[in-house]
Design a protein that fits this description.
Length: 276
């Protein structure tokens, strides 16, 4: 009788332990699935296009701050990343295709600087938690880059946007006029040679900008967009004695011409395509 009771007790204990483990596994699975399916405006989401078998490594660097999960969107690799050289940061792809990568968590420090997997970058769908760091040249060389993201990139603490979008394929950045440029001092070469770019930038807060050399060098804004830039930047608070390059953009007679002349009176040196 005692043996029979002991056997029943052991069976019950094993059953309860199994249920407990099953519950823990189910909770863990829910967490993993949530991380893989919760891409949205709170995540940094972008696409890459691979050629043959390939890998993509985010351009994070020593000195940055990282505590994020990366979902490679169909490839292998990815997972928890807590340092710039964490092996989990690498996504591996067996076939050529376009893949959507999702980064959720803390990511401070992003810089291609014309290197790494710059040519694999395609479309930025959501900026999410991305903070660039402050080392410039963030997307330089990403020739195939487009931006469809409508959320706002966090520029807190950023003073330089040097050569940020020195890429040829970029046409516009949908939310850029909602970015907070108030801490930025350097716009030098921000869109240099972005030959397809054409957007109204007239509402920017340029109150602390001291350098905009080659800002639009190689770029031709439409006359209406360039007019808006000159009129808006002159009307807004601005520093004196700024060197500014408007590319090949032309301005119209009237208000834009008056605004340009007023900036020159404030010591600005302006290079552009001249009056239309």
């Amino acid at each position: 009788m005692k043996k029979k009771l002991l056997m029943i007790f052991l069976v019950v204990c094993v059953g309860m332990a199994s249920l407990a483990w099953a519950g823990l596994l189910q909770q863990r699975l829910k967490v993993v699935l949530a991380r893989k399916s919760a891409a949205g405006p709170n995540d940094f989401v972008f696409t890459v296009t691979t050629v043959l078998a390939d890998t993509f490594t985010p351009p994070i660097y020593t000195g940055g701050t990282y505590d994020f999960t990366i979902d490679c969107g169909g490839g292998t690799g990815g997972g928890e990343v807590t340092s710039y050289d964490d092996p989990s940061r690498v996504c591996n792809y067996a076939e050529p295709a376009t893949y959507t990568i999702t980064i959720a968590g803390t990511i401070i420090g992003w810089r291609f600087n014309d290197g790494g997997d710059k040519l694999l970058m395609r479309d930025i769908i959501s900026w999410g938690p991305l903070k660039l760091g402050n080392q410039a040249k963030y997307f330089k060389g990403c020739t195939n880059l487009t931006v469809s993201a409508t959320d706002v990139l966090d520029l807190t603490g950023i003073t330089t946007l040097l050569e940020m979008f020195e890429v040829t394929g970029l046409t516009s950045v949908p939310s850029i006029n909602d970015w907070d440029f108030s801490s930025v001092t350097i716009l030098t070469s921000m869109f240099e040679n972005a030959t397809s770019f054409d957007q109204d930038l007239g509402v920017w807060d340029i109150s602390n900008v001291t350098a905009a050399t080659k800002f639009l060098d190689g770029v031709t804004l439409s006359t209406s967009n360039y007019d808006s830039l000159l009129i808006g930047w002159e009307a807004n608070s601005h520093q004196n004695n700024v060197i500014f390059h408007g590319g090949n953009s032309k301005y119209s007679a009237g208000t834009a011409t008056t605004a340009r002349a007023a900036l020159e009176t404030d010591g600005w040196t302006i290079t552009d395509g001249g009056q239309e």
